[in-house]
Amino acid sequence: MANLGIPQNTIAVLQKYNFNFQKKFGQNFLIDTRVLDRIIESAEITGEDCILEIGPGIGTMTQYLAENAREVVAVEIDKNLIPILEDTLSEYDNVTVINDDILKVDINKIVEEKNAGKPIKVVANLPYYITTPIIMGLFESHVPLQSITIMVQKEVADRMQVGPGTKDYGALSLAVQYYAKPEIVANVPPNCFMPRPNVGSAVIRLTRYDAPPVQVNDEKYMFSLIRASFNQRRKTLVNGLTNAPELGLSKEKVTETLEKLGWSATIRGEALTLEQFAQLSNVLK
Length: 285
What we know:
Elements: H1 7-16, E1 29-30, H2 33-42, E2 50-54, H3 60-68, E3 71-76, H4 82-88, E4 95-99, H5 107-115, E5 120-125, H6 131-140, E6 145-153, H7 154-161, H8 171-179, E7 180-188, E8 193-194, E9 201-208, H9 219-231, H10 237-242, H11 251-261, H12 274-284
């Protein structure tokens, strides 16, 4: 089968099927073989691996995955792409394509059926509008995962790996760093895609921790504190937390807790590390 990482091969497939890009699915297909090689290498894919690919598109990266992994399960939401995938992946007997929304798929069931419940690796070129829900869904559902290697918008990749006190630091940074070790492995300019996006992209690898790096008694509660403190990021932590009705915290209670922890009453949420949010959560709870 023709290598779809080569632009003219991608164009030929799109013309053959009269394919129209769907704005609503945020479709941008990779047309750079070096970037594809880099993704396979960063994900450390071996012949033992079962890979979950999210959004295979016309199968560009799927071909690379199928060549390198034991088994690939590709979940594609756009039904117009299914006949194309049947064509571009016809040579591979180790690929299963599922036409569904990844947010509705029972990934644990896939892991059971295809990998005997052992951790899988996720690889994806993610549509920008849905990056965060997909990543959080994967972590929060506690699917057995080794790593997630994904292409995302450059600024989202930056947000995932920054620390306190920077403008990109937020709930996403903390959530990712609670579950995994983030590492940007490549920056990818717009001309590596068809159609060209308006922004730069990056490949980031999230290596799942066996156990979170901080001790927290109730992770759901900690994340609701984190969200509340970044919902109004210019406000002090005291105001952010007391303004969140779902937490039901009084000003006195929060102020007293900060005193107990030896923190300033005017501290902002964006100044706290993951470790400090865990302490705060344990004391308040």
